[in-house]
Amino acid sequence: MSHRKFEHPRHGNLGFLPKKRARRHRGKVKSFPKDDPKKPVHLTAFLGYKAGMTHIVREVDRPASKLNKKETVEAVTIIETPPMVIVGVVGYIVTPRGLRAYKTIYAQHLNEECRRRFYKNWYAAKRKAFSKYSQKWNDDAGKKLLDNDFKQMTKYCKVIRVLAHTQMKLLRKRQKKAHIMEIQLNGGTIEDKVKYAREHLEKQIPVNQVFTKDEMIDTISVTKGRGFKGVTSRWHTRKLPRKTHKGLRKVACIGAWHPAHVSRSVARAGQKGYHHRTEINKKIYRIGDAIQVKDAIRHLEGDDVLANINQSQQSSSTTLSSSSSSYQKEDLPAQKKNSFKQSNPKQKQQKRICIAFSIFSSSRSTKKKTTTQVKRTREQKKKQTGVNNETKR
Q1: Of 185, 164, 187, nearest to 83 (Cα)?
Q2: Between these two residues, 362 and 159, which has the higher pLDDT value?
Q3: β partners of residue 222
Q4: Cβ pair 179, 166 in contact under 8 A
Q5: Please, are residues 137 and 108 in contact by the beta-carbon 8 Å criterion?
Q6: What are the two backbone dihedrals, phi and then psi, of residue 193, each rounded to the nearest 5 degrees?
Q7: Using the 8-state DSSP alphabet, how is residue 69 labeled?
Q8: Are the beta carbons of 108 and 130 closer than 8 angstroms?
Q9: What secondary structure letter does DSSP report for 332?
Q10: What Rg do the C-alpha atoms of the chain give, in angstroms?
Q11: Which of 5, 38, 95, 155 is the most exposed place for a label (fewest CB within 10 A)?
Q12: Does domain 42-222 sit in CATH 3.60.150.10?
């Protein structure tokens, strides 16, 4: 199989055709996990926002591999997951053509960021969505109707899903409209699921209640859009030889003379990126609270925070206020000095902090003269010039 690169020019997977732009920016869960009545009631999905990427060092546990019990560096993704708010319940019945929505019940109070999703122009609208519906929770007749809906849901529905939205006010984004999605409830009986959904209306659910550490999950999102691209970038086909006429980044043979049309399996130029994709078997390495680095170093209180900074790469987005390669304790305010002493009683920990920040500070360590030293040198030069003038006279 010599010269394989010329005999096998086709690349790419035809299973992803047509490669077109996604209709919506938010990823869509097309199939939820199978229900297990033996487990307690729990959510099966969660919404998050990608904050960036970094790398970790871990020990490989593969007995058949040469890297077994050795440290390797792997890339990880940081996802910001503020708590989601449950605002509704949806019940589905099973039909010969699949699931069909039977009942939808909303909460009494909906946040502004949730109601923004129902309008195209929030400022020009009257903002009266769900104003009449919320009155059902106050009237006795309305409460009876809602109780009847919950009873019918437990009697006829086979699948219970929850309407939940994100909290955009907790994110540093310009967007104010919340993203809303249906999340299926698994575990327990139908009565337990309806009871769980009714009790958690208008309540926040953190990501700790949905996923745990070292759990394998699937990620669904839309890839980064790259616009109109050629075949070399889009399908990774081989470039033609240097002396090829009318371009190199092309496919030489696009099919036979007849049939007189180009087949769908031939690599062609077109849209690249902004595709809806699902990646399976992603491991959760850590779930924890985020830290906010403000005014350079003033919020550090221990080694764990330093580890968090190095893992989440917060230091690259902040400007360190130390011009030299070392950091002194006098630069802190009076209140922070005490916390510095309490969190770092030993000198070794202070050295670790200095080393950690010398990496991110400027590499040049040139010593600049102070103003007093400059004044002294000028006075000495003047005296020397005066003595030289007297000797000449």
Answers
A1: 164
A2: 159
A3: 276
A4: yes
A5: yes
A6: -65, -45
A7: T
A8: no
A9: S
A10: 32
A11: 38
A12: no
H or E element, residue 337:
helix 334-343
List CB contacts of 239: < 8 A, sequence separation 6 or more.
232, 248, 249
Helices (H) and strands (E) in the chain, counts: 9, 12
Distance separating alpha carbons of residues 293 and 79, to the nearest angstrom: 17
Residues 177-211: tens digit of each pLDDT: 999 999 999 999 999 999 999 999 999 999 999 99
Q: How far is CA 181 from the centre of its chain?
A: 17
Residues 353, 327 contacting (CB under 8 angstroms): yes
Neighbours of 287 (CB within 10 A): 16
The model's pTM is 0.70
Residue that is written with structure tokens 């104003």 in the block: 131
Q: Which sequence spans correspond to the domains of the chain?
A: 42-222, 303-360
CA distance 270 to 25: 20
- Report the run of H or E that residue 232 belongs to, with start and end: helix 231-235
Please say whether the beta carbons of 116 and 180 come within 8 A: no
Block residue for tokens 């969505």? 129
Amino acid at 259: P
Mind listing the pLDDT tens digit for each residue in 239-277?
899 999 999 999 988 999 999 999 998 999 999 999 999
